[in-house]
Amino acid sequence: MDYWGLLFTPVFVCRARASRAKLADAILWCLLALVPISCWAESLRVSVVLSDGSSPYKSFANTLSNSLPASVQITVLEQPERIMAGQARVDLIVAVGMKASLSAITHAGSPVLAVMIPKIGYEELLAQTSAQNRTQAVSVIYLDQPWARQLDFIQATLPGHRRIGLLYSQNAHVDLSYLRQHISERGATLIAKPVLSDEEVFSTLDDLLKSSDVLLALPDNTIYNTANIRNILLSSYRFDTPFIGLSQAYVTAGALGAIFSSPQQMSEQVVATILSFARSGKLPEPQYPHDFTISLNPEVARSLDIKLPATDVIRNKMNNASGGAP
């Protein structure tokens, strides 16, 4: 199973949808309803390729299959290698996870919509498959949340925590100048430290935690992996520094909170994208998830002597900060 597919057992969650994205989706559905299905989806053939048969991917595929109109011919493949075995051409491939996305982009000639992969992973895929050798259109709905949304979440949840710690490796490709300026404009400070080798992860983390009010995880598997996560959580407890994770799995393990998009939420956005593709024949530009879930760990908050706002309060503050933008 892809690292990025390690999702989502509900513990204490509150769904939050950016109002503008919700309105846009509603308008799209209404417009599509006015167009006869035969005009845009009569013979659309969609292949959903999963990186493996794990639960998050299957959940996504099932929700997607049940949400599309019956006129859309959809097939689900749990073995990405079948793309290499001369699979019949389809109108669109929805590639779920890193392995499936790499196989689809490399071996298929049909347009590819990659989903449930982080922005970093997508950029790596494009680097591995040069534009000169790609004949198909490729786009993505990222798994990770946009920076602005992450910062909105931190400020709404922990308004007094203004020193944001970021631990990163050379694989993270973080635009620190942009992020530092963006955080500074919000009246906060970015404290970022690079990890130059596996042996330096925890010594660098300790230095970072000494001067940080909150630790924000990155989708950086060099640092945030199953071998390290327990000790990262223990270090954050030792320094009384709340840890903001990437998924429900992080919150279950002991992070204070996280925002993420579930397979079901992702599938709703993919359905809208497929229907738009059926009408226009074009894929949208890469985009972040519109819909997301807020997850908090009250027990960790109590142990850190942090009083968490109610989730609806957090959601309202985030929407007000972003103006409803996704």
Compact overview of the structure:
With about 325 residues, the protein is of the alpha/beta class. About 40% of the residues lie in helices and about 20% in strands. It has 2 domains: about 40-145 and about 265-290, Rossmann fold, CATH 3.40.50; about 145-260 and about 290-320, Response regulator (Rossmann fold), CATH 3.40.50.2300.
Please describe the topology of this protein.
Elements: E1 13-17, H1 19-33, H2 37-40, E2 45-50, H3 55-67, E3 73-77, E4 92-96, H4 98-107, E5 112-117, H5 119-128, E6 138-142, H6 147-157, E7 163-168, H7 176-184, E8 189-194, H8 201-210, E9 214-216, H9 229-238, E10 243-244, H10 248-253, E11 257-260, H11 263-280, E12 291-296, H12 298-303, H13 311-322
Describe the structure.
The protein folds into two domains: 40-143 and 263-289, Rossmann fold (3-Layer(aba) Sandwich), CATH 3.40.50.2300; 147-260 and 292-322, 3-Layer(aba) Sandwich (Rossmann fold). Helix 1 packs across helix 11, helix 6 crosses helix 13 and helix 8 (201-210) runs parallel beside helix 9 (229-238). With 326 residues, it is an alpha/beta fold. The model is unreliable at 1-20 and 26-41 (pLDDT under 50). The chain has helices at 19-33, 37-40, 55-67, 98-107, 119-128, 147-157, 176-184, 201-210, 229-238, 248-253, 263-280, 298-303, 311-322; strands at 13-17, 45-50, 73-77, 92-96, 112-117, 138-142, 163-168, 189-194, 214-216, 243-244, 257-260, 291-296. It is globular. The longest helix is centred in the last third of the chain and has 18 residues, at 263-280. 43% of the residues are buried. The protein is built from 13 helices and twelve strands. Strands 3-2-4-5-6 form a five-stranded parallel sheet, with helices on both faces.
